[in-house]
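Duplicate of #3305? Posting structure anyway:
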C-alpha cells in the first residue's frame, strides 16, 4: 500500500520532534461548542522548519497549544520529543516545556523585572547551563537589539519584545520551537531578518521550528507548509514558494467564505 509521505512519518518516534495522533479538541460546551481540531494527525521531523497556515479560526493556535501541553486534547495523543503528553500532570508538563520547548507567543511574555539579556538567557539558567555572553550579545545584535540589551521589556516596542522571545527560544536549543506569528508585529525588513535567523537555526544548527503565519513570504522560508481549514489538515506543500502559498491560501479562504 502506498501512503503519503506525511502519513509514513506519523509513527516515526525516532526522527519526529512532534507527533499528533488523531487529536480532537473542542472549545466551549453544548450548542456553542466549536471543534477547533478534528482528528488531526501529523508528524514534524527533527531539524525541519514547518509553517502552519489557514484561515482565521481554522485551529492553528489550538494546534500549538495542544502540542505544547498548554491545552489538553479531548481525544488523541501528542508525542513531543518521544514523550507522550497524555498522562503527564501539570508539573511534568511545565518541566517539559521549560526543558524541551521554546516559545515565541504573544501571550508568553517576558519577565518584566529582567533586562533583555537576562530574559534571553533565562531558560539556560533554569537548565543550569552557562550562557556564552558573546554568543548571546551576538544574537541580540543580529536581531536588532544590540543597543537594548540592558533595557526592560516595558521599555521596548511589541516587535522588539517578540525578538527577545526569539533570542530566548533560540539560545537554549530546545527540541522544538513553537512560534505564533513571530513576524506579525514587524516591518518588512525586520521580518526578513528574523526569518533568516530562524531559517539558519534550522539549516546550520538542526533546530526544529513550527511557525504559525498568515504571511506567504514568511511561509516560503519553511521547508514545508501544513494548511488547516475547519480544524483539519487541508493540504501539505513541500519547498513552498510565496506565490504558490498565496494561491493555495486564497482557495482555502474562498472555500471558507462560501
Ligand atoms: N477558549 C476558547 N473558547 C471557545 N472557542 C475557542 C477558544 N479558543 C478558540 N476557540 C475557537 O476555536 C476555533 C479555532 O481557534 P484558533 O484560535 O485555534 O484559530 P486560529 O487558526 O489560530 O485563528 P487566527 O488565525 O485568527 O489566530 C475558532 O473557531 C475559535 O473561535
Ligand atoms: Mg491563532
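Output from current build:
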Amino acid at each position: 500500500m502506498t501512503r503519503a509521505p506525511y502519513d509514513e512519518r506519523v509513527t516515526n518516534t525516532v526522527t519526529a520532534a512532534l507527533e499528533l495522533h488523531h487529536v480532537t479538541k473542542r472549545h466551549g460546551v453544548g450548542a456553542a461548542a466549536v471543534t477547533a481540531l478534528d482528528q488531526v494527525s501529523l508528524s514534524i521531523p527533527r531539524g525541519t522548519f514547518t509553517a502552519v497556515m489557514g484561515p482565521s479560526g481554522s485551529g492553528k493556535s489550538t494546534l500549538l497549544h495542544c502540542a505544547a501541553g498548554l491545552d489538553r486534547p479531548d481525544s488523541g495523543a501528542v508525542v513531543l520529543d518521544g514523550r507522550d503528553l497524555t498522562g503527564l500532570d501539570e508539573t511534568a508538563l511545565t518541566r517539559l516545556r521549560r526543558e524541551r520547548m521554546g516559545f515565541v507567543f504573544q501571550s508568553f511574555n517576558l519577565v518584566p523585572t529582567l533586562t533583555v539579556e537576562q530574559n534571553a538567557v533565562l531558560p539556560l539558567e533554569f537548565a543550569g547551563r552557562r550562557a556564552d555572553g558573546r554568543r548571546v550579545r551576538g544574537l541580540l545584535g543580529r536581531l536588532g537589539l544590540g543597543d537594548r540589551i540592558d533595557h526592560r521589556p516595558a521599555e521596548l516596542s511589541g516587535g522588539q519584545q517578540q525578538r527577545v522571545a526569539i533570542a530566548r527560544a533560540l539560545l537554549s536549543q530546545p527540541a522544538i520551537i513553537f512560534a505564533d506569528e513571530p513576524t506579525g508585529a514587524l516591518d518588512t525588513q525586520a521580518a526578513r531578518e528574523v526569518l533568516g535567523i530562524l531559517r539558519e537555526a534550522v539549516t546550520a544548527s538542526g533546530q526544529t521550528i513550527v511557525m504559525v503565519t498568515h504571511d506567504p513570504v514568511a511561509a516560503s522560508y519553511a521547508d514545508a507548509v501544513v494548511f488547516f481549514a475547519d480544524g483539519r489538515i487541508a493540504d501539505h506543500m513541500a519547498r513552498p514558494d510565496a506565490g504558490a502559498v498565496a494561491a493555495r491560501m486564497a482557495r482555502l479562504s474562498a472555500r471558507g467564505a462560501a
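Confirmed duplicate; merging threads. The CA atoms of residues 82 and 89 lie 17 Å apart. The mean pLDDT is 90.
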